[in-house]
Here is the input.
Amino acid sequence: MWKDPIVEEIHNIREEIAREYNYDLNRIMDHLREKEIEHADRIIYKK
Here is the structure.
């Protein structure tokens, strides 16, 4: 079965972040909210 390298990279990054925050969903979401603020110029909000 063919594996998409971009999808594999996304899965690896997701796992690294989860491991970094001990798989605690609240801590992961806090991290993501901080990143959203930090990179607000890259976020597109659907109206």
